[in-house]
Design a protein that fits this description.
Layout lengths: L2 E4 L4 H10 L13 H9 L9 H11 L13 E4 L10 H12 L9 H22 L2 E10 L6 H9 L6 E12 L2 E11 L5 H9 L8 E11 L1
Parallel strand pairs: 1-2
Antiparallel strand pairs: 3-5, 3-6, 4-5
Length: 224
Amino acid sequence: MAVTFSDLHIEAGLKTLEEFLAGKTYISGDQITRDDIKVFAAVSKRPGGEFPNVCRWYESVSSIIAPRFFGNAVGVKITSQASSSAPAPAAESAKATEDDDDLDLFGEETEEEKKVAEEREAAVKASSKKKESGKSSVLMDIKPWDDETDMKKLEEAVRRIEMPGLLWGASKLAPVGYGIKKLQIMLTIVDDLVSVDSLIEEHLTVEPCSEYVQSCDIVAFNKI
């Protein structure tokens, strides 16, 4: 059943609204609806302290910024008493009431608006997931083909590999035997972006690195 309020810009109308809101959170229930928005628009300014229920409701509505409301609106009509000196024609008054009944400050969402909202929500979730993604510290042994392999060029080839979420760190040469040395290198990876297995199989052991790299071993793998 629709509720009717009138002259909410003056004390008499606010008094009626004050009595109506006694014991209520919003116009049509416990959740904000377009009924609240319609009445809110009809209240010309923030009510004074003599209307505590209206003040509480007004502040609650004004603080809510949302593209849609989930409560079930029951319908509200806002009317205004015509001036005695200039009465409005009956047809015009009826049209004003009808237009007022159709007042919808937010309107129904279009398919395009829904799509944009869904894309925005998906982007936020993806961003949050990236922020929450863990990192790992890896120590890797990279072995050359033989003792004649140029280890400086080997390291340069390794460090030229660039991937999102990959950061090369400190390195040193360590003896293997028979005059052969291996490259021990630290790297930090973002777990959701870099797979160490893929790094080895698709980058370190294929050209151009394979000209210098014979094999790779993971020595240590620690979550950060």
